[in-house]
Amino acid sequence: MSETTRVHLVRHGEVHNPTGVLYGRLPGFHLSDRGREMAERLGEVLGERDITHLVASPLDRAQETAAPLAAFRGLSITTDPRVIEAGNRFEGRTFGVGDGSLRRPAVWPLLVNPFRPSWGEPYDQIAQRMRAAVTDARAAARGHEAAIVSHQLPVWVARCSYEGRRLWHDPRTRQCSLASVTTLVWEGDRLARIEYLEPCLDLLPAKAGYGA
After folding, report:
1. I want to staple 24 with a disulfide (CB 3.0 to 4.6 A). Which of 91, 105, 130, 197 is the partner?
2. What CA–CA distance (Å, rounded) separates 110 from 116?
């Protein structure tokens, strides 16, 4: 029988963001109290798994989400910049369909190509760096399990890439809530299936699908 290897792509918990800005890669955004509760829950749930390798984005919210799991499993956190949040030229701004921002002429040049997208890091570039990180994590945990704590868009684009879907999409359709776990399951060298789990479903705030 072929060996089974799992790589769990974990989205971080809720972030303290009272002004509602798109924080992207900006420093200084940490987990909220509810986000820390989510991280503890993830540590308990994933801590029961055979995780032998733990990776996290360098951003504070990902490191803080990974910390309880690292403590539970007795693992060190490998910081990997390849799983960081996607670059976004709207960082530090509030931006949404209902807040009037689409009427500002200054933002129009950034919205010309939603398929790339023109306002941030290209989807294919995100997919390439995420897949490279997954490949290394899978090799490090071969026959066991690895966890990568990342962000909504990178996790979703990686999933779409593995499933052979188009990478451009409506953000409202992403199946990647806060503190969710998207699991890639390999049987030997064959990607056998993709699983999805929401261990913190009862903790999700309204509109929890949005954010990074």
Report:
1. 91
2. 11
List C-alpha distances in Å: 112 to 17, 93, 107, 115, 119: 28, 19, 10, 9, 8
Sheet (strand 51-56) strand order: 77-79, 51-56, 145-150, 4-11, 181-187, 190-197
Rounded to the nearest 10 degrees, the angle between the axes of helix 123-140 and helix 152-163 is 80
Higher pLDDT, 25 or 2: 25
Which token pair is 83? 């799983």
What are the structural domains, with CATH classification, of the chain?
A: 4-88+121-203 (3.40.50.1240)
Over residues 157-197, the pLDDT tens digits come to: 999 999 999 998 888 899 999 999 999 999 999 999 999 99
Distance in angstroms (rounded) separating the CA atoms of residues 185 and 55: 17
**Number of C-beta neighbours around residue 116 at 10 A:** 15
pLDDT in tens, 21-51: 888 899 999 999 999 999 999 999 999 999 9
Residue 166 to residue 161: CA distance in whole angstroms: 7
Q: How far apart are CA 36 and CA 174, in angstroms?
A: 23
pLDDT tens-digit series, residues 102-120: 566 665 455 556 657 756 7
